[in-house]
Amino acid sequence: MTETVPLLSMRAICKRFPGVLANSNVNLDVMHGSIHALLGENGAGKSTLVKIIYGVLHPDSGEMRWQGSPARVSSPSDARKLGVGMVFQHFSLFEALTVTENIALGLDAAPDLQALRTRIVQVAEDYGLPLDPDRHVYTLSVGERQRIEIVRCLLQKPSLLIMDEPTSVLTPQEAEKLFATLRRLAGEGCAVLYISHKLYEIQALCDTATIMRGGEVVAACDPRNESAHSLAELMIGEELKPPVRRESAAGDTVRLSVRGLNKPSLDQFGVSLHDVSLDVMAGEIVGIAGVAGNGQSELLDVLSGEVPQAEADTVVVCGTPCGHMSAGERRSLSMAYVPEERLGHGAVPDMSLIDNLLLSGYRTHKLVRNGVVDYDGARTQARKVVDSFDVRTPGVEANAGSLSGGNLQKFIVGREVCQTPQVLIVAQPTWGVDAGAAAAIHQALIDLAGTGTAVLMISQDLDEILAISDRVAVISAGRLSSPRPRAEANAGELGLLMAGKRAEPAAAHEHAS
Amino acid sequence: MLLRLESRRAPSVLLTWLTPVMAIAATLVTGAIIFAAMGHAPGQALYTFFILPINSGYGFTELLVKATPLALIALGLAIGFRSSVWNIGAEGQLTLGAVFGGGVAIFTHGSESIFILPLMMLAGVVGGMLWGAIPAYLKTRFNANEILVSLMLTYVATLALSALVHGPWKDPGGYNFPESVLFGDAALLPILVEGTRLHLGSLIALLLLVAGWFVLARTLLGFQVRVVGMAPMAASYAGFQQKRMVWIALLVSGALAGLAGVFEIAGPIGQLLPVVSPGYGFTAIIVAFLGRLHPLGILIAALILALSYLGGETAQIEMRLPQGITGVFQGMILFYLLASDVLIRYRLRLLAPAAESRS
Q1: What is the per-residue pLDDT for A504?
Q2: 3-state secondary structure (DSSP) of residue A281
Q3: I need a surface site. Which of A91, A132, A222, A258 has the fewest CB within 10 A?
Q4: Chain A: which residues have CB within 8 Å of chain B?
Q5: Is the distance from CB of A322 to CB of A305 less than 8 angstroms?
């Protein structure tokens, strides 16, 4: 085994899906012991490529070489035999089983549970991955669940570990711990193929980067020699304008107010909200950070009116108590809302953009007279949104589901912004959206706040929160911290809050159930 | 060779309208095979079933008479089905409409007032809505499944009608047959074409189809119906209330089924009988789906399913086939339609064996 022969070499890989060439002549070399970033926007073909490596998908043409000799991988089990391990973005764990039992299920041969338990403890200790083998999965945090998947891979002593967007579910501290583990693995000679679109962590972690765009490899570089800006431009293939910041335009009029909101969770896996209070002023953007599943969706249900409350004055929009009002009635108070899920919630996939404009816009734009819809007016408004937000679509008659994630999100945000609301609530505005579209959306939110709108943004993306918010709060286990000005907030401290720890960092321990 | 289903990026609009044609073609082919297996010349049998009944002007008006209740009921059902409210009990709503409308005719028997007919229609609509309101209330209040409730209420309605014509509403001069009095002229729908049974109800049904198209395509209510059916979360995002949709769907479909019931007893039948419908309420479910829940499609589908009734009758007379042949053909159409509808969202792809083994 010489160091000059790549551990893994992919040559001229092509893979076509109906209507899209997901991988076009892709070449990739991964060296022993390197942490290799695979960088690209959603839909660039990263996931397709790693699924081919792991044997989940089969290429239409092209060759895979493992340590210099041709390899045939027709299933994940073949890949594991070669020494490839993969941690998926979405875990496949049984909530009702213990850590050990889950890992046993993922192994190709049925193991002896006691021996396996010992090995798990051993590996977990070796790599600094604290994990109790006897805990049931449903009691574990997302970060701990990810550790199960990693340990499961490490037990097979892989020589290549593939990580698909591993930090999207982690707090900054958890991410830092993960990086330490990965560096240690690389030091022992294990190669890591690290998929992400978070540029800062790639610069901090990786020594090589392959950048994909539109199914092709467009560049290879050493990310440590690049700036985040230049990486982003390689990724999107055009010049990237950072959002134009402005001085906070916060006025002293409270536009959105939540007072002492308590909402016990009705379902077993839901999160109860405890005494949530918040004011959003005219002209400011308030960001709520937090790891998924800490009460964000419950809070959004209450704020949007999709789950109205019994008491009117828990939510006040522009001075009108509206806790009991439906989502439609709240729109009449000049409130707009961008939900987290685009398809099926913010937009109807099988309907045209015209119909989707009507969905939330028919009140504000007065597009219904005597019960009859003014479709010409709706078409005009939809065109306006498409034009002013640069939505790439064949036309406003196209179905919402046929647009790419970024373009549909631009349409939805544009649809709400064009209603010039006094209050805008946005959830995950750039989730799964390409960098170009994300920048446009951020700019639109900043500009809207500049006109005096109160904007409340709930996001798991801490970079996004810190990039555009005027004040920042953190939601954890259904409790909301008091917002503080962005200038006084830093990622480390917010991370502690996200992990459910109070202001004094030393007070709490790892398993705060 | 292997066949594989591959999902399409977007549902095919062309196939949405083509699969009903494919389903009918497949039904004809299978029908021919069944006829042949029973010892009839397939060509002759299909001719007897599908062409002979409408070979004359009278036959064609009969087709319209049968299509009228089917189209009316299917229109109401389509509004519900589009918003995912599954009213399976139109037969019962039709029956209760006939009971209410027939009651008006019986209690005003002997009067020649011109208000009797409009009053019967109104009563029929109220009766149908009442029968639709029960599943709507139970659904919105207790989340009871409207499929089961509306279906079971059908049997309550038909037994109630039967009890009435066997008892209090039996014609005193009717030799103890379980039938009501023959309605007076003021309680009968005017005939459109002399010498046929084509009545005013067919014209009203056509107008209601146009109105239904307008509501679905042009009004906010129609938009809400579509959104609730396609994406319930998006409906709640827009502030459309699902409970209201349940009420509207069941009341409208109940009203139209009740009206169809009045048209039957004030049109072709002319009195109350223990059974006033040969399953129009159930066949209308097939009409609604075959017509793609679209008023124009429903018009065409109602004519096709009406033909299956006429064909079944002709086949009984000409070929001595059992009555069940109507149901066989209706069932085949629905079966093939549901089977071929998979092609709207998926395409069939042939895989060469070589490509398969390589992967």
Answers
A1: 41
A2: strand
A3: A222
A4: 18-19, 58, 74, 304-306, 326-331, 337, 339, 341, 344-351, 355, 358-360, 362, 368, 371-373, 375, 399, 401-402
A5: yes
* Interface contact flag, A351 B9, Cβ < 8 Å: no
Closest CA to A287 of A444, A430, A457: A457
Q: Specify which residues A212 forms β-bridges with.
A: A40, A217
DSSP A98: B
Which is nearest to A423 in space by CA: A278, A271, A234? A278
Q: Give residue-wise pLDDT tens across range A394-410.
A: 889 998 988 877 889 99
What is the rounded CA–CA span in Å between residue B132 and residue B248? 10
> What is the structure's pLDDT at A108?
72
Please list every residue in chain B whose beta carbon sits closer than 8 Å to the beta carbon of residue A347: 234
**For the segment A364-379, what is each residue's pLDDT rounded down to a tens digit?**
999 999 999 999 999 9
By the 8 A CB rule, do A304 and B216 touch? no
Q: Most A CBs within 10 Å: which of B224, B236, B248, as the mutation test of the A interface? A: B236
Quote the CA–CA distance of A464 and A224 in Å, as a whole number. 22
Q: What is the pLDDT of residue B82?
A: 94
* Rounded Cα gap, residues B9 and A400, in angstroms: 12
Q: Pick the closest to residue B256 from B150, B347, B125 (CA basis).
A: B125
Beta strands in A131-244 (DSSP E): 160-164, 191-196, 208-213, 216-221
Res. A2 pLDDT band, cuts 50 70 90: very low
Examine the predicted complex and report whether its ipTM is higher than 0.85: no
Residue to test with chain B: of A350, A354, A365, A415, most B Cβ within 10 A: A350
Burial category of A179 from C-beta neighbours within 10 Å (exposed 0-12, middle 13-18, buried 19 and up): middle
Confirm if A132 and A170 have CB atoms less than 8 A apart: no
Mean pLDDT of the A198-226 span: 88
Domain boundaries, chain B: 64-301
Of the candidates A327, A330, A368, the beta carbon closest to that of B236 is on A327
DSSP conformational letter for A191: E
Residue with tokens 């959830």: A427
Higher pLDDT, A402 or A482: A482
Position A18 pLDDT exceeds 90: no
What is the distance between the alpha carbons of residues A443 and A460, in angstroms, rounded to a whole number? Answer: 19
Chain A contact present for B357, CB below 8 A: no
Element housing B6 (H / E)? strand B2-7
Q: Å from A345 to nearest chain B CA? A: 4
- Beta-carbon contacts of residue B172 (< 8 Å; ≥ 6 apart): B181
Chain B closest CA to A360's CA: distance in Å? 5
- ∠ CA A178-A183-A184, nearest 5°, is 100
Instruction: Give the containing element (helix H, strand E) for B54.
Output: none
Burial of B92 (0-12, 13-18, 19+ CB in 10 A): buried
- Picking from B185, B204, B169, the residue whose alpha carbon sits closest to that of residue B117 is B185
DSSP code, position B183: P
Q: Which amino acid is at B303?
A: L
Q: Are the C-beta atoms of residues A378 and B226 closer than 8 Å to each other?
A: no
Q: Give the C-alpha separation, B158 to B247, whole Å.
A: 23
Residues A220-230: tens digit of each pLDDT: 999 888 887 88
User: Is the whole model's pTM more than 0.90, yes or no?
Assistant: no
Q: B230-236: long-range contacts at Cβ-Cβ below 8 A with a sequence spacing of 24 or more?
A: B230/A348, B230/A349, B230/A350, B230/A351, B231/A344, B231/A345, B231/A348, B231/A349, B231/A350, B232/B84, B233/A341, B233/A344, B233/A345, B234/A344, B234/A345, B234/A346, B234/A347, B234/A348, B234/A359, B236/A306, B236/A327
Of A430, A447, A426, the closest CA to residue A439 belongs to: A430
The pLDDT of residue B356 is 40
